[in-house]
Amino acid sequence: MAAAATPGVAEQAPGAAPQGAVPFDLSQAPNIEGFNPLPKARDETFKEKFARKTKENPFVPIGCLGTAGALIYGLRAFHQGKTRQSQLLMRGRIFAQGFTVVAIIVGVFATALKPKQ
């Protein structure tokens, strides 16, 4: 026969806090000694963030547009049977992708070296 629970004793998961005792109040922020939280920053919309990032590093969107343009025109030339033009545009796409990667790396280093305000 299975072990029976003793009557009158409520079963409790191991490590659980006793009923009625709450370790902290969830309705308020925790009070940590020596910590002063910064005011909540305003959330940016996608458009605002895109404009800010483009101003910080304008070469990344330029490289992305160049990559997409070379890819689209290269695929169009391939579809039309212009293999020579298609090959040149695919090489241009590789160049544009390399330009974009270099622009991202330079932007990361520039951001890291910029003094914090």
Q: Describe it for me?
A:
54% of the residues lie in helices and 0% in strands. The chain contains three helices and no strands.
Shape: elongated
Q: Give the N-terminus to C-terminus distance in angstroms.
A: 71 Å
Backbone CA Rg: 30 Å
Largest sheet: none
On the 0 to 100 scale, the average pLDDT is 83
Structural class per helix/strand content?
Answer: mainly alpha
Total strand segments? 0
Number of helices: 3
Proportion in helices: 40-55%
- Work out the strand percent: under 5%
Summarize the helix and strand pattern as letters. Answer: HHH
Report the uncertain regions: none
Task: Give the key terms.
elongated; about 120 residues; 3 helices; mainly alpha
Summarize the structure.
The chain is mainly α and 117 residues long.
Topology:
Layout: H1 46-56, H2 59-79, H3 83-113
